[in-house]
């Protein structure tokens, strides 16, 4: 799956997790842009990403992603490893 498809799926996880419209999300969307996305919610988001993609993300890298595009790139990198 190319990164665009991965980004679309990452957006869907955000939408499902936080109840926001997929259309309001971009690769540049950060946790600060989404109401209710705090450190605890970020762990729930990471779990959702791992479930959606069937991967185990390196926790420190997953905690350090700055936007949805970075999360899509991390998922792509983990899937290719």
From TrEMBL:
What is the name listed in the Swiss-Prot or TrEMBL entry for this protein?
Answer: Acyl carrier protein
Q: Which residue numbers delimit the Carrier domain? A: 1-79
Q: Which domain of life is it from?
A: Bacteria
InterPro entries associated with the record? ACP-like_sf (IPR036736), PP-bd_ACP (IPR009081)
Q: Which organism is it from?
A: Endobacter medicaginis
């Amino acid at each position: 799956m190319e990164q665009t498809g991965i980004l679309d799926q990452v957006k869907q996880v955000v939408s499902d997790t936080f109840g926001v419209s997929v259309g309001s999300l971009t690769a540049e969307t950060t946790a600060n842009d989404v109401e209710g996305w705090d450190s605890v919610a970020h762990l729930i988001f990471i779990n959702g990403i791992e479930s959606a993609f069937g991967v185990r993300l390196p926790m420190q890298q997953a905690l350090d992603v700055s936007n949805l595009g970075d999360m899509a790139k991390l998922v792509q990198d983990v899937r290719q490893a």
